């Protein structure tokens, strides 16, 4: 993968985005779209000219002037003209939530006031209010359309590994035989139009040689799909790998990763997701669909000024886009909204809840209109159960919850250990080889077993299925000792040879899925974890369900059965156990609870199964939390060193702000700017010699009385702009941050007024403030930095990165791991 120059700062103390001696070659960017075309490339701060990319064009014909007393120059006042680029953020920096929300309130107040002046201003006000809903509509339409395209393409390419339709190569196996006139219901998967590769190559489908040909073609197609996927990711969009949810959580918390939600990432992720799923690897498309939907949201934001220029408003849109992604992934609009609220969003106001619901609704409607599976459902494994569950069954459901928690904790530990090995050894330098090796092993082991050979979504559909009279699956090969059936409900029956054979195959499938998923998740291809986790749980649940069913059939006179399960009754539904097991394992890995239950409820359409799902989900979370507090996404955030401040955790240590702030005792004094006594050269020297992302402004070095806080980026852009636009600004020009210019002797160079870029209300606490309060402030206000005072005098500064390092230190973890790696 492309090497990234990943140095970042979340506050004033640690940003290395500006290299020493590079003042005149600073590069700025105003939005995520600006660097979308080259995601993952090295951060380059050089420019051919000194003008940074601009958000707002400076009006032509207006000049910026300044001057001292007795000068003919007009003082440059940034209150009159907005400085292009001021108020935006560098890559790998944290946004200032307080400032962004304040700017949006000011913008809204200005539009509201102007709306009373003219009809055109009123129309503009109405369109501004409506733009959010229009954006949600567009996100839903685009997300649903892309999800339908991915579903149809993946289904066709998965079947391509086994054969091709001679009646039309664009048909998958199922659609090919639908159009056939020579197919019976019992053999509905066999039709003359569908030819396996052995039939095409050697004209027969019988014998050992035909089996070898089909085996070879299956492995060959799998390797080809995987190679194309990893190659496209490596060459065009390194950010398209993985599920994307850990990074989206980090972005929604306020961090900026330019290009991660860009055009190239969207295009490559959509293409490679189809290839990765079709290769047969143990991964799913549901997690990456959230990333795809967020890319759609981010790109469409640039059509609306309100969202293009405000990072906080854009993150509200991304929260709604994440809901739309889950909506099309599982066909669960309400579950998608709850997933965004519970799992990924950092800031989720009520307005975002409504808009998320609307976006999820539109996305689900769009996917339903496309009907990618031909079953009028949004997912392949939709199922309906009709048999009620009984109170005693809570015991096996809770056992499945325990299994899910144990599996979740085991998977997280082993997968994180493998990913850490990948990052710290030579293995990480050969992503293509790693993907091909894992794909080859998966394909070679999968082909002999029909349950591993089929796609994971089809496997889950098979496991969820409630057997009927017309089902020809081996899982439904029961011995029928009855003459009539009522209303489609079949009594519990003794298992036939097909069921016993399927049990052995499913046990082998369970072992393969458990092991191979550990090595698959985290490779340099799009890879989701929802479907593999659900498959592991569904297999375990089906095995337990069939066991309970046979136990109830042969021992219906036992005390635990005789009160509710008589002979010839339909007592146990193995498909329900598979569904509960799927929920338990997914909950154990992700630690989802409410959203998980709602998603599974929407998959089944049955309210009466909510209690078993809740029992399994809570049990799996308790067991998994007892073995490790982090879910898989939080664990990957910590592994990658993303600056994510978890809002759900409590800080229980008795430390003070003075224990964390910088400078520490015996450190050099805090670098500050004075309000009216420093020249342009003084400020440029400080910028060149330090790497801080901002500077406190004080009345004087002697008093250290705080005036405000100014960002390094805003300083650089403003000074560069003044040198170009304002006549007479030289290195000896005085910079002042006061309302009125200081008295200057005659014939001095023009002064430079920078009060407009000064934050006059930086957040401050005293040095004796407990750190638990400081941590809470950073979490709830989304601060970048907090200034520390003592008796009104500036003492030091705490950045978000300092807080994260301190939390890691208190947890006996490596504090230096808190870096964007």
From TrEMBL:
GO molecular function: antiporter activity; ATP binding; identical protein binding; voltage-gated chloride channel activity
Domain CBS span(s) in chain numbering: 661-725, 757-817
Catalytic activity reported: 2 chloride(in) + H(+)(out) = 2 chloride(out) + H(+)(in)
Quaternary organization: Interacts with NEDD4 and NEDD4L.
Cellular component per GO, a single term: plasma membrane
Name of protein: Chloride channel protein
UniProt key word GTP-binding: no
Function (record text): Proton-coupled chloride transporter. Functions as antiport system and exchanges chloride ions against protons. Important for normal acidification of the endosome lumen. May play an important role in renal tubular function. The CLC channel family contains both chloride channels and proton-coupled anion transporters that exchange chloride or another anion for protons. The absence of conserved gating glutamate residues is typical for family members that function as channels.
Main location group: membrane
Subcellular location: Cell membrane; Endosome membrane; Golgi apparatus membrane; Membrane
GO BP: renal system process
SUPFAM superfamilies: CBS-domain pair, Clc chloride channel
Transmembrane segments: 130-150, 215-240, 317-341, 391-412, 432-449, 502-522, 529-548, 576-601
UniProt superkingdom: Eukaryota
Family membership: Belongs to the chloride channel (TC 2.A.49) family. ClC-5/CLCN5 subfamily.
Keywords, in A-Z order: Antiport, ATP-binding, CBS domain, Cell membrane, Chloride, Endosome, Golgi apparatus, Ion transport, Membrane, Nucleotide-binding, Repeat, Transmembrane, Transmembrane helix, Transport, Ubl conjugation
Lineage of producing organism: Eukaryota, Metazoa, Chordata, Craniata, Vertebrata
Membrane topology according to the record: Multi-pass membrane protein
Pfam families, A to Z: CBS, Voltage_CLC
């Amino acid at each position: 993968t492309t090497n990234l120059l990943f140095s970042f700062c979340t506050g004033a103390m640690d940003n290395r985005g500006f290299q020493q001696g590079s003042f005149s070659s600073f590069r700025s960017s105003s939005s995520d779209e600006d660097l979308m075309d080259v995601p993952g490339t090295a951060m380059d701060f050089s420019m051919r000219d000194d003008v940074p990319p601009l958000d707002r064009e400076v009006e032509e014909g207006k000049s910026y002037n300044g001057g001292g007393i007795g000068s003919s120059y007009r003082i440059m006042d940034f209150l009159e003209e907005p400085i292009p680029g001021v108020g935006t953020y560098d890559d790998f920096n944290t946004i200032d939530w307080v400032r962004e929300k304040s700017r949006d309130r000011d913008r809204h107040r200005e539009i509201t006031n102007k709306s009373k002046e003219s009809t055109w201003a009123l129309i503009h006000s109405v369109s501004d209010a409506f733009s959010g809903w229009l954006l949600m509509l567009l996100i839903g339409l685009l997300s649903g359309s892309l999800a339908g395209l991915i579903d149809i393409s993946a289904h066709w390419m998965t079947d391509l590994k086994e054969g091709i339709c001679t009646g039309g190569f664009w048909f998958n196996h199922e659609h090919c035989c639908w159009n056939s006139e020579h197919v019976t219901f019992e053999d509905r998967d066999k039709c003359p139009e569908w030819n396996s590769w052995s039939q095409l190559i050697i004209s027969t489908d019988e014998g050992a040689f035909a089996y070898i040909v089909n085996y070879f073609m299956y492995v060959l197609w799998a390797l080809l799909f995987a190679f194309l996927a990893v190659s496209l990711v490596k060459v065009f969009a390194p950010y398209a790998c993985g599920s994307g949810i850990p990074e989206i959580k980090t972005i929604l918390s306020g961090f900026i990763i330019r290009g991660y939600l860009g055009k190239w990432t969207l295009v490559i992720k959509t293409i490679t997701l189809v290839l990765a799923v079709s290769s047969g690897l143990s991964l799913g498309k549901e997690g990456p669909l959230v990333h795809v939907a967020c890319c759609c949201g981010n790109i469409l934001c640039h059509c609306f000024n309100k969202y293009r220029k405000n990072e906080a408003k854009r993150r509200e849109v991304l929260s709604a886009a994440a809901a739309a992604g889950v909506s099309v992934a599982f066909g669960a609009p309400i579950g998608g909204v709850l997933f965004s609220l519970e799992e990924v969003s950092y800031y989720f106001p009520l307005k975002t809840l409504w808009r998320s619901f609307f976006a999820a609704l539109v996305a689900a409607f769009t996917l339903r209109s496309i009907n990618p599976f031909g079953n009028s459902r949004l997912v392949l494994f939709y199922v309906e159960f009709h048999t009620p569950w009984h109170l005693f069954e809570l015991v096996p459901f809770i056992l499945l919850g325990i299994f899910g928690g144990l599996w979740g904790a085991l998977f997280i530990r082993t997968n994180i250990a493998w990913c850490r090995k990948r990052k710290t050894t030579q293995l990480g330098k050969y992503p293509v080889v790693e993907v091909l090796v894992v794909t080859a092993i998966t394909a070679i082991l999968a082909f002999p077993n029909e349950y591993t050979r089929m796609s994971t979504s089809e496997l889950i559909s098979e496991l969820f299925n409630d057997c009927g009279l017309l089902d020809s699956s081996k899982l439904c090969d029961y011995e029928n000792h009855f003459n009539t059936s009522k209303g489609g409900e079949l009594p519990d029956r003794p298992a036939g040879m097909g069921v016993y054979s399927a049990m052995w195959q499913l046990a082998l499938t369970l072992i393969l899925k458990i092991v191979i998923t550990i090595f698959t998740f985290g490779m340099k291809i799009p890879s989701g974890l929802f479907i593999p986790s659900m498959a592991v749980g569904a297999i375990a649940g089906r095995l337990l369900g069939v066991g309970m069913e046979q136990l109830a059939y042969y021992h219906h006179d036992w005390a635990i059965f005789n009160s509710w399960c008589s002979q010839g009754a339909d007592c146990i539904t193995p498909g329900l156990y598979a569904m509960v097991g799927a929920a338990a394992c997914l909950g154990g890995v992700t630690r989802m609870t409410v959203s998980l239950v709602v998603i599974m409820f929407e998959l089944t359409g049955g309210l009466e199964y909510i209690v078993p799902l809740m029992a399994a989900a809570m049990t799996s979370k308790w067991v998994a939390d007892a073995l490790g507090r982090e879910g898989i996404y939080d664990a990957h955030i910590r592994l990658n060193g993303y600056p994510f401040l978890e809002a759900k955790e409590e800080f229980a240590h008795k430390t003070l702000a003075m224990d964390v702030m910088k400078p520490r005792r015996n450190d050099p004094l805090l670098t500050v700017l004075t309000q009216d006594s420093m020249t342009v050269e003084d400020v440029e020297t400080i910028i060149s010699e330090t790497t801080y992302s901002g500077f406190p402004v004080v009345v004087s070095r002697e008093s250290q009385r705080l005036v405000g806080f100014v960002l390094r980026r805003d300083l650089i852009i403003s000074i560069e702009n003044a040198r170009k636009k304002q006549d007479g600004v030289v290195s000896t020009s005085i910079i002042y941050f006061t309302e009125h210019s200081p008295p200057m002797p005659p014939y001095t160079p023009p002064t430079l007024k920078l009060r407009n870029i000064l934050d006059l209300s930086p957040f401050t606490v005293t040095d004796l403030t407990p750190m638990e309060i400081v941590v809470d402030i950073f979490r709830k206000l989304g601060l970048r930095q907090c200034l520390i005072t003592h008796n009104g005098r500036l003492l030091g500064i705490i950045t978000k990165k300092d807080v994260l390092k301190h939390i890691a230190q208190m947890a006996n973890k490596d504090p230096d791991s808190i870096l964007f790696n």
